[in-house]
């Protein structure tokens, strides 16, 4: 059953022994369970590094631009995923500050 990566809860019910016993058996036989908790990774570490490098080098201006660079033919990558990647890589996310509006004198000088 461990070969077929059946969850330990199911094995426990069928066999009638505890999870610690199942863990010991899996360690002795060196079986690695494919079951893992948490979010599935959408990007490989190589793709994450590519997106971060594009931002650092200025090839992409935003997370949305970087997501198009990483885009795969079978699925698209959300810019929020790229933003999460940047946080993991230690890059700070920031928006470009908008320039203050010009006063009347400066507007006239620009038009002249």
Automatic annotation (TrEMBL):
<feature type="compositionally biased region" description="Basic residues">
    <location>
        <begin position="28"/>
        <end position="43"/>
    </location>
</feature>
<feature type="region of interest" description="Disordered">
    <location>
        <begin position="65"/>
        <end position="112"/>
    </location>
</feature>
<feature type="region of interest" description="Disordered">
    <location>
        <begin position="28"/>
        <end position="50"/>
    </location>
</feature>
<protein>
    <submittedName>
        <fullName>Uncharacterized protein</fullName>
    </submittedName>
</protein>
<feature type="compositionally biased region" description="Basic residues">
    <location>
        <begin position="85"/>
        <end position="98"/>
    </location>
</feature>
